[in-house]
Amino acid sequence: MLFWAGFILILLGVAALAIDRQAAHFIYDHVSARSHKFLDSITHYAKAGHWLAAAIIALAGAAIARHFGYQGKDLSLIFTYSLAFIASLTIGSAILHGIKLVLGRRRPRDDMEMGLYGFMPLAFNLNYNSFPSGHALTIACVAVIFTCVWTMLWPLWFSVAMVLAVTRALLTAHFVSDVLIGAGIGLIAAREVLLLGFPGSSPFWF
Q: Please, which residues have CB within 8 angstroms of residue 88's CB and are 6 or more apart in sequence?
């Protein structure tokens, strides 16, 4: 299921390329300063650094506890899902940043502020890093991992992930297609890591 969800998001992202510029200008003109401030205050919850640090701390804590002889079930879950998240984020980010470097897309704000728009293929310039969205990929991976731990709350995790991913477009930090494709890559990367690297650790419907 998650593979097809991710695949559909990627297809929608490709389709959104046709309306990206118009959508970004519409958002830029209609999101108020107050809304922008609120969105900016929550968008960082999707930042990779925060979640990666939390996963590394949890993994290290679990390893230390194991070293001192603790073997509880909770410890095993922490170890497994922290490692799964780190692997998912690493693989997904490698794919995402490869695309960023090869395709090289300017941010929406370059268009708004300087009239510079478009892809810069094979420029290999780190400043052209709009496509796809790393925040969207990260929070999609988080939602997948949280669903494995608290399966019954999956609508909450994916709803929160969707909201946080959309903030990237509403802040004109990314185009709509950037967000959709980033989230799609995140879903697929996390699913494949769990099914191939951690069999039995995810719901049957993944």
A: 141, 144, 145, 186, 189, 190, 193, 194
